[in-house]
Design brief:
Keywords: 2Fe-2S, Iron, Iron-sulfur, Metal-binding. This is Non-heme iron oxygenase ferredoxin subunit. It comes from Ruegeria spongiae. The chain is mainly β and 102 residues long. It has one domain: Rieske [2Fe-2S] iron-sulphur domain (Rieske Iron-sulfur Protein, 3-layer Sandwich). The protein is built from no helices and 11 strands. A hairpin with a 5-residue loop joins strand 7 and strand 8. It binds FE2/S2 (inorganic) cluster (FES). FE2/S2 (inorganic) cluster binds next to loops.
């Protein structure tokens, strides 16, 4: 089983928006939402754009390059040209720190 890693203080997340972090060599997008914090690979699986530069609304991240979109809760593609499930990771908050299982 993958370990939980401390990533960022929860208070440093942009509220209801996406925050870019690095975990080891990987760029990860953290999404703050009213129903919790979600995490995905930051680079879009369609053409490699940085989703952290996209538009985030509710639970949907829209890619800045071709406007493909994903539901951040489970990675489901919800708008073309995105067709493949986005890689997502479990998150939790422990002692004020966001942790990601990765
Ligand atoms: Fe994200 Fe094309 S790179 S939709």
């Amino acid at each position: 089983e993958k370990p939980w890693r401390d990533v960022i203080k929860a208070t440093r997340l942009e509220k209801n928006w996406v925050t870019r972090v690095e975990i080891g060599p990987r760029l990860i997008a953290l999404y703050d939402t009213p129903s919790g914090i979600y995490a995905s690979l930051a680079l879009c699986n369609h053409g490699g754009a940085d989703l952290c530069d996209g538009y985030f609304d509710g639970h949907v991240i829209e890619c800045p390059l071709h406007q493909g979109a994903f539901d951040v809760r489970d990675g489901t593609p919800v708008s073309a040209p995105a067709t493949r499930v986005m890689r997502v990771f479990e998150t939790r908050v422990e002692n004020g720190m966001v942790q990601v299982r990765i």
